[in-house]
Structures are given as C-alpha cells and as structure tokens.
Write a structure and sequence with these properties.
With about 425 residues, this protein is of the alpha/beta class. It has 10 helices and 24 strands. The longest helix is centred in the C-terminal third of the chain and has 19 residues.
Amino acid sequence: MPHHQIAIIGAGTAGITVAAQLLKKDKKLDVAIIDPSTDHWYQPAWTLVGADTFDMEKTRRDQKDLIPDGAKWIQQRVQSLDPDNNSVSLNNGDVLTYEYLVVAPGIQIDLDGIEGLREAMGKGGVCSNYIDPEYTRETLKNFKGGNAIFTQAATPIKCGGAPQKIMYLAADMFKSMGVDSDTNIVFATPGSVVFGVKEFLPALMNVINRHGITVKFFHKITKIDSVEKKVYFTITATDDSNCIAINEKQSIGEEVTGQATVAIKYDMLHLAPPQSAPDFIKQSPIAHIEGPNTGWANVNIHSMQNPDYPNVFALGDVAALPTAKTGAAVRKQAPVVVDNILKLIAGSKADNQAYQGYSSCPLVTGYGKMVLAEFGYGNKRMSDPLISTFVDTTKEKYSMWLLKKYALPYMYWNLMLKGKA
C-alpha cells in the first residue's frame, strides 16, 4: 500500500500552489498530488475567450510541466476518502495512505441540475463560459438581435461575478456589431442584489443602466425548452416593495406559466450552470452533512483545518467558506494551510488562523474597462493597499483591464503555481 507524508487531492490552482509552497519550505517533504488531468486550464481568462479577446489555447498548459519538482504525481481519480484510517481509494483499485491530507479537487458542474440543460447546452444559442467559452464566442459573434438572457446559478459557483462579466462584454460587442437597438439583454438572478459588496455596486449599476440591461431579481432558473427556445424561472421571493426587476422592458415577452413561474423566449442564453462539490467529497466524512453547506468540505474558516480530522485540510472551491470561490482566495488560503501542516509536522498546534475570507472578483465591465472588487468575510471590502493607493478600484479603469488581461495570467503561471505568490 503506497504511503505519503502529505497527499494532495487535485492539481488545480489550490493543489499545485500548496505543493509548490510546501516544497519551497522543505524540499525533503514527501508530497504526492493525485489528479488524472493531463491539461491545466487558467479558467479566469475564459470570460475573455468568450468575448473574443483572448486565445483559448493560451489558457492551457500541460499538467506535467506544472507539477512541482520533488512532488510525485499520481494520475488517478479519487473514488473515496476514509479519514478515520488516513486513506484514499483510487479508481484503479489502489489505496493510498497519508499522514496529512490536503483536499483541493475543485468544483464540478451539474448539467442535470436544471431540467433540459444537458440537452440544450452547446447548441441553439445556449452557451456557458464555464463549459465551452469558444461556443460562447461563436454565439455572440453570430447574434442577430432578440432576447439575450444571462443567468446566475442558485448554487455556489466558482467566480460568482463571471455571469455578469460576459454580459457586459456582450453588450459592448452587440453595440459594435450594430445589433444593440434590436436586442434585449436580461440578467436573471435568484438573488436580491447584483453584487453583495456595497462599495462596488454603484459602478455596476452604472454599467447596467448604460446598456439598459433588464435585471430580474428572485428568478431561479428551473427549466430550458430548447425546442421552443424558452427558459423557465421560479420566482423565489419579492422584496418589500414587490419590485423584482429594474430597467424592465415589455418587449421581452415574459409569460406567466404558473403561480410562481415565468417563461422567457431566448435567442441566446448564457448560463452559470449549477455546481457542487465532487461526489466523493459529498459522500465522505469530511463534508457537512446538513445545513446550507451540505456536501462541501467542512473546515475552520480561518485555519482551513477540518474540525473532526486535524490532519485534514481543505481549500479552494471545495471548501465551505462564506466567501467567493476564486483563485485570489486560494492565494491567501494556501500559505495558511502550508504553515499549519508544517507546524503539525514539527509537533506544534495548527494555530494559524490568518485567513479572513479574502477573495477578489475582477469585474470586467466592457472592453478596456474593469472594476477590481476585493472583499472578505461579511462582504467587507479588503482592497490591496498598494493598488488602492494609486487606483480607485471601485471605478471602471483601463489599468485594471490590463491587470486582468496581462498581469494576472503572468502572475498565475510564473509566480503562484511556483509557490512564489
């Protein structure tokens, strides 16, 4: 039975970063990374791919080139976890044991979470940057007008601002194509606000009003009829004034189909599909078994340590944390995990509780424009002191667009995945 001092599940942003930082601290550590993928994708750029301003191939690297020197790469899929016996079962039948476990498998897309989604996706104008940004690009470039509907998922998702970003870029694209006057852009969200951090909301509302985007609050997508090209929503609530829309237009053709259901015809539909923790996490003892975090990895929200298994840590998208699931969050979580594991190895307590929920959402608001939303637990603004000294990140800035398109990808490949940032 193979045994490793530190086993890391997942060779995505979180897994690679933790492995690289551990081995930079101590190259004698026995670190194994479990992941079957041969490709590694820089998914934050997929918004730009969908908007025809970034090359898809430039978001890909060979996974083998990113595994840190000194780490063993186990190219298998995890079947199950047994933290009571410090073991991981793999899909080839092997059982691996560990002294410390880092759980970072990311998030999975649930195409069966919406009726008709699996059948509709990838054709007939139904697209998603989360799944195939190149088809999003094709859909936008071929759009001739009508209802362009963009939806927000009712589940936790990676990069919660992404559904808005592609919508703002699409609005710019439609204008440049000359079809904007024949287009109704609709943003349907199950939530009650466009963005939860109040300091950044005015800039986003300016963009929405600039393009005349209809925003539908409390709209939870429940069904797609790809034959009739209709998308169905359940109205989950109303606010005190019963106002569930802004910039509402009569011409979008919304039909009331039930006591709390409506249907809207679409000419194109971009989705943030439902997402969840991988099945082997949901079925494991390290997951929450009830409540709003059911199925997600249970951790102390400041130390990333599992409360029931002190030698198990989880970070990244799979962790049940009340903050956005982004690569920027991983950059702040990874050093805490690394420090706590090294403390345990040295015989000390894992008492690093420095993570305060930092996450960042580079909100692209158009070609050449971006608002950099940085925040922590409680939706409290946590802007980088250096950047905010020179730039008001609550306003649309060209400099922030350059950060998104050039600086962040460079930092990701050359610093973060090498344990340097």
